[in-house]
């Protein structure tokens, strides 16, 4: 979407985390890992909607914080490619944090305030257009939920766990145990569903998913 994800100084990060906000036109898109949030986002883009993608912002933040992260988690998370000095090897970092709750919490304490600040900055730009836009935030509930993001509507994309695991193993080249660790590192999907306003089940075909997205858009319009 051509988002500019510039660096923010510590004061702007702190103030954005503390200042109450209200996003009247923002709809959160969340759900379990490998449930199909990205697929829903792509469908929404074809319908003309803007998407703020927390994962894309997070990738940029990892590079902004690379030095601090390498100091914290060790040289083993640095890219082995000599052309990518100072770049984080996300798979190596994932192997560390998805198997250790304390280290995952430490990573989140470094990155989440910066990610949140950039999400809110982009959302405030889109609010001026006074039309629906979507915030794709996988860890929405884990990172503060409605109170932190100031949204009214939350859409949860769900899928059966066996599908989540199969997609993760194929997409990320993970073993079954590695995929299970990543699923279990998140809030249980049932809890996310219970706290959401709209649920999109993604257990079928792409055509079926498109139909469910269109149904969700109809609900928003009425």
UniProtKB/TrEMBL annotation:
Reactions it catalyzes: 3'-dephospho-CoA + ATP = ADP + CoA + H(+)
Cross-referenced InterPro entries: Depp_CoAkinase, P-loop_NTPase
GO MF annotation list: ATP binding; dephospho-CoA kinase activity
UniProt enzyme class: transferase
Keyword Repressor listed: no
The protein's annotated pathway: Cofactor biosynthesis; coenzyme A biosynthesis; CoA from (R)-pantothenate: step 5/5
Cellular compartments annotated: Cytoplasm
Residues the record lists as binding ATP: 34-39
Annotated NCBIfam families: dephospho-CoA kinase
Protein name: Dephospho-CoA kinase
Species name: Helicobacter canis NCTC 12740
């Amino acid at each position: 979407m051509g988002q500019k994800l510039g660096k923010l100084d510590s004061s702007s990060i702190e103030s954005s985390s503390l200042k109450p906000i209200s996003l009247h036109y923002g709809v959160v898109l969340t759900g379990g890992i490998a449930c199909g949030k990205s697929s829903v986002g792509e469908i929404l883009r074809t319908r003309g909607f803007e998407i703020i993608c927390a994962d894309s912002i997070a990738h940029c933040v990892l590079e902004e914080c690379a030095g601090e992260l390498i100091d914290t988690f060790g040289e083993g998370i640095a890219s082995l490619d000599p052309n990518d000095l100072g770049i984080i090897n996300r798979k190596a970092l994932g192997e560390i944090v998805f198997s250790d709750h304390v280290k995952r919490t430490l990573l989140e304490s470094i990155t989440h305030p910066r990610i949140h600040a950039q999400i809110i900055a982009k959302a405030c730009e889109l609010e001026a257009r006074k039309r629906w836009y979507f915030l794709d935030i996988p860890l929405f509930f884990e990172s503060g939920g409605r109170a932190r993001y100031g949204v009214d509507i939350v859409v949860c994309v769900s899928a059966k766990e066996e599908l989540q695991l199969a997609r993760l193993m194929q997409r990320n080249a993970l073993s079954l145990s590695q995929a299970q660790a990543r699923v279990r590192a998140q809030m249980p999907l049932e809890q996310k569903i219970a706290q959401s306003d709209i649920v999109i089940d993604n257990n079928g075909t792409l055509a079926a998913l498109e139909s469910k997205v269109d149904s969700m858009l109809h609900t928003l319009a009425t």
